[in-house]
Each structure stands twice: as C-alpha cells, then as structure tokens.
Automatic annotation (TrEMBL):
Stretches with biased composition (Acidic residues): 101-124
Keyword Cytoplasm appears in the UniProt entry: yes
Domain CSD: 23-88
Annotated organism of origin: marine metagenome
Name listed for the protein in its UniProt record: CSD domain-containing protein
Cited SUPFAM superfamilies: Nucleic acid-binding proteins
UniProt subcellular location: Cytoplasm
GO molecular function: nucleic acid binding
Length: 124
C-alpha cells in the first residue's frame, strides 16, 4: 500500500488552470444578484462552472455581469466543479485597478483663499 492510498480524498480538489498562468479564463454566462450566484463558461470549453458571490474578489458590492471576462480557479466540490477566486480578467493581483490612486496634477474644485467661511443657519 502506498502513501497515496492512505490520502484523504474527501476534501475539495483544486484543478490546475489551463495555460500555466495559475488562473483559468472564461466569460460570465449569467449572474443573479438577488440570489448571489450564477455560471461561468470556461474559455477552453467544458461544463459551465457554478459561481457564488462569496468567491468574487473585488471591493464593495460583489457581483458579475453577463459577458464579463473573468479569471478564476476551479475547485471540485460535492455538487460538482465551481469557480473560486473569481476576478475581472486583467485585474492587478492586489485588487487595485490600473492608475487607481494616481493623480497627474492638482485640480482643486474650490479655491480655499476665496471660499466664504460663513454658513447661513435657519433657526426657525
């Protein structure tokens, strides 16, 4: 008997992504915001992959739109394959969008030297 024969095979299994990038690519088939799930069509074909909002990696409200290109990992669960670590294709690893937080030049909306500091308060 080998060590592999004694391995626990009951847990989820991660499948390597195609193309060697560590992430698989696909398009969102549909996503129901109210229910928090939908399906992704893998770029390489194969069965649709279940996608749950808790696996979407983005700031703020986690959602996907039909037709969005995404990258993800595939995990085999008790009910079949599903996508995990889902994010927009081409999104930087740290979750920041390109150019986010970069200011080319100051563009003040209000000149503080000329702003009127008085505030009218109606005390009726």
């Amino acid at each position: 008997m080998s060590i592999a024969d004694n391995a626990d095979r009951s847990g989820p299994k991660l499948f390597p992504a195609w193309g060697g990038t560590g992430m698989a690519l696909g398009k969102v088939k549909w996503f129901n915001n109210a229910k928090g799930y939908g399906f992704i069509l893998p770029e390489n074909g194969g069965e649709d992959l279940f996608a749950h909002y808790s696996s979407v990696e983005m700031d703020g409200y986690k959602t996907l739109r039909a037709g969005d290109e995404v990258e993800f990992e595939i995990e085999e669960g008790p009910k079949g394959s599903h996508a995990i670590h889902i994010r927009s294709a081409g999104q930087p690893q740290d979750g920041a969008s390109e150019g986010e937080g970069i200011v080319d030049e100051a563009d003040p909306q209000v000149d503080l030297d000329e702003a009127d500091p008085q505030v009218d308060v109606d005390n009726d």
